Amino acid sequence: MTEPSPAGASAAHPPAGAAAGKVLVADDQRNVRTTTALVLRSAGYAVAEAEDGAAAVGRLAGEGFDVVLTDLRMGEVDGLEVLRAALEASPATQVIVMTAYGTIDSAVDAIRRGAFDYLAKPFKEEELLLRVGKAVEKRRLLGEVSLLAGEFRERYGLGHIVGRSAALRELLDRVMRVAPTDSTVLITGESGTGKELVARALHAGGKRGQKPFVPVNCAAITETLLESELFGHARGAFTGAARARRGLFEEASGGTLFIDEISETAPGFQAKLLRALQDGEIRRVGESVPVQVDVRVIAATNRDLKALVAARGFREDLYYRLAVVPLRVPPLRERIEDVPLLAEHFLSAWCRRTGIRKELAPGALQRLGGHAWPGNVRELENMVEQLAALSAGPVIGAEEVRFDAPGPAPGADAVTLAAAVDAAERRTIAAALQRWEGDLGEVARQLGVSSTTLWRKMKRHGLPGREG
After folding, report:
1. 376-390 and 339-354 are packed helices; what angle lies between their axes, rounded to 10 degrees?
2. Concatenated DSSP letters for 283-351?
3. How far apart are CA 297 and CA 306, in angstroms?
4. Beta carbons within 10 angstroms of residue 8's beta carbon
5. Contact residues for 23 (Cβ-Cβ < 8 A; gap 6+)
6. Mean pLDDT by 10-residue block, N- to C-terminus, for the chain (468 residues)?
């Protein structure tokens, strides 16, 4: 039960925004519950009551609350279950746990699990109103951030970058910070992860957002043509050059030039690109007069440029010119919790294009979430479109989600389960070694094995490494 405060205290100092706050009070002690609810109502809150944990969980499933005030000890369904249900229903909901002085450790555990604060019984009205007022204010601020999310995604062109995993949030935070600058950015990541989408987000969120965004894929153009494509050429510079032509550097003037697959360029071209980045000017093929260019360069690759530099396959000075701000796009297997969101996003886009209504059953989403996705987001998009096109009914079931394993080569023995497991293990360790730059201590921690076990497996699979 709350202790009385001086008359009129709650009325004289109502919490800011109290009228907008909706609070659920859950306690199996009726006198504590009703007294707490009365104090909150007198301060202007909309209050609902739950006589035990099960009732609180039931109300959370059907209603939204800004704050949940719950006792920790309530029989079969305790306050930790109420906390879990509240955060599952809405991560922005703020939970305050009430506990006796003798069980403060339990309250601290609840805070580690996501509770906003705790109240030790018995508590004063002023303390109750102060804690609830702070919780409502935090909920309000989170609501404002949520409202801004749509504006943020529109501004940075992130409509097709879907997910809420920690890895993706970290990437988008870096995008938001570097976008307004003119810094050169190097985007790395496996094929199919969405590197060009990140480049477009950087362009859209900066001061060049209204100017051209010009992409070029170096792997699709020969060295001679690539130089002409980027720098332009004079009339008669080479066979077939019937007229002068501006290059993509000039086409992107004032905007952004996105150079994809930068690792596939030859040393001669790399030297000319370095000079363009250093001097802010280019020379068209067949001309000696320099042309000033004002372009932000964003480069991307699915290869390890540091390893290429060490192997003398890429210029070190160009690498450091490009990697002023390095951004790594995580593969889908590192943000597997985003798979259901991406699948729903791709299916919705397919439905809009075709005018056919389809949906993914929970079992289908679960199966999609259990796949490693070596082809990353591009593979998932193709799979969802395939499922939508081939599904007979409006609901895509789990049994329709099939992953084709590559068949054995002609005349080869069938792949055994042990061989498949070995191959998967080797791929996982190799990917971790690449991500953590060969630091065996960190790789062992990330994979949840001892350093000895990791070293033994690396030796068996023929993987090199260094001590962390």
Report:
1. 50
2. --BT--S-EE---EEEEEESS-HHHHHHTTSS-HHHHHHHTTEEEEPPPGGGGGGGHHHHHHHHHHHHH
3. 19
4. 8
5. 40, 45, 46, 47, 48, 65, 66, 67, 68, 69, 132, 136
6. 41 42 92 93 91 90 87 88 84 86 72 85 90 87 55 56 81 88 94 91 88 90 83 77 82 93 91 92 85 94 92 94 95 90 89 90 90 91 92 90 60 48 73 75 73 72 61
Helix (H, G, I), strand (E, B) or coil at 426: helix
Find, among 308, 298, 228, the residue nearest to 264 by Cα.
308
What per-residue string of b and e applies to 346-383 under the rule 16 or more CB within 10 Å gives b?
Answer: bbeebeeeeeeebbbeeebbebbeebebebbbebbbeb
Return the number of other C-beta atoms located less than 10 Å from residue 307's C-beta. 13
Asked whether 167 and 140 are in contact (CB, 8 A), the reply is no
C-alpha span between 56 and 46 (Å, rounded):
16
**Which residues, in sequence order, are CB contacts of 396 under 8 Å at separation 6+?**
347, 358, 359, 360, 361, 364, 387, 388
Our CA angle for 193, 199, 200, nearest 5°, is: 110
The neighbour count for residue 324, using CB atoms within 10 Å, is: 15
Alpha carbons 79 and 57: distance in angstroms, whole number: 10
Name the phi and psi angles at 233, rounded to 5.
-150, 160
Q: Show the tokens assigned to 270.
A: 């790399």
Q: What pTM was estimated for this model as a whole?
A: 0.55
What is the DSSP-derived secondary structure letter of residue 98?
E
What tokens does 281 get?
């000017």
Bridge partners, residue 3, by sequence: 124
Q: Which two tokens stand for residue 317?
A: 């000075």
Which region holds residue 229: left if phi is over 0, alpha if psi is between -120 and 50, else beta? alpha
Query: What domains can be seen in the chain, in order of their start residue?
Result: 9-146 (3.40.50.2300), 166-328 (3.40.50.300), 332-400 (1.10.8.60), 417-461 (1.10.10)
CB contact set of 65 (below 8 Å; sequence gap of 6+): 22, 23, 24, 48, 86, 90, 93
